[in-house]
Amino acid sequence: MSEPVRRGRPGHDQQTVLRVAIELFNRQGYDAASMGDLARELGLTKSAIYHHVPSKEHLLERALDEALDELTAALDTVHADLSHTPEERLRAAVRSSVVVLAEHLPAVTLLLRVRGNTPAEQNALARRRDIDHRLAEMVREAADTGAIRADIDPLLASRLLFGMVNSMTEWLRDGSDVDALADTITTLAFDGLVRHRA
């Protein structure tokens, strides 16, 4: 017989609890935030919070998975599209990472702050390293075709490219035109700031 679905108490569904937890972890830091703090944010007693979630680390794991699953899915889609050149796929990867970050800003912000202090964080860091290596391979493929310069280490180039994207967590605000922002960052990353004269 399967376990009953944990629905939470009236007024707080699982997504609401997760959204509030992510906001709390980003504001106070995961280590400093307690389940009691989360209960207060939700207007619950400390014991009542456990009707919604089994643990603080469970919430962290779900938050990190949200960010990582979206980034991985975006990369999978781009990488599978063999109708485009390696350069076009790399541009699409940069552009889609901007969109994922903007659409999942709180979860991605939390992801970029983890340091490996818990099993959930260690798993997230391992998944981030895998994403870094996949992106580096896309840089290498584009360089091998001569579409982009080949004199920069692909892993370093990837980290610099996506470091620019990740910096958005420091200044991006709700209401930004995500498509325009994704276009601007992609153009800047590949075409630079210098105006080319005829």
Automatic annotation (TrEMBL):
<keyword id="KW-0238">DNA-binding</keyword>
<dbReference type="InterPro" id="IPR036271">
    <property type="entry name" value="Tet_transcr_reg_TetR-rel_C_sf"/>
</dbReference>
<dbReference type="Pfam" id="PF00440">
    <property type="entry name" value="TetR_N"/>
</dbReference>
<dbReference type="InterPro" id="IPR050109">
    <property type="entry name" value="HTH-type_TetR-like_transc_reg"/>
</dbReference>
<feature type="domain" description="HTH tetR-type">
    <location>
        <begin position="11"/>
        <end position="71"/>
    </location>
</feature>
<keyword id="KW-0805">Transcription regulation</keyword>
<keyword id="KW-0804">Transcription</keyword>
<dbReference type="InterPro" id="IPR041490">
    <property type="entry name" value="KstR2_TetR_C"/>
</dbReference>
<protein>
    <submittedName>
        <fullName>TetR family transcriptional regulator</fullName>
    </submittedName>
</protein>
<dbReference type="Pfam" id="PF17932">
    <property type="entry name" value="TetR_C_24"/>
</dbReference>
<feature type="DNA-binding region" description="H-T-H motif">
    <location>
        <begin position="34"/>
        <end position="53"/>
    </location>
</feature>
<dbReference type="InterPro" id="IPR001647">
    <property type="entry name" value="HTH_TetR"/>
</dbReference>
<dbReference type="InterPro" id="IPR009057">
    <property type="entry name" value="Homeodomain-like_sf"/>
</dbReference>
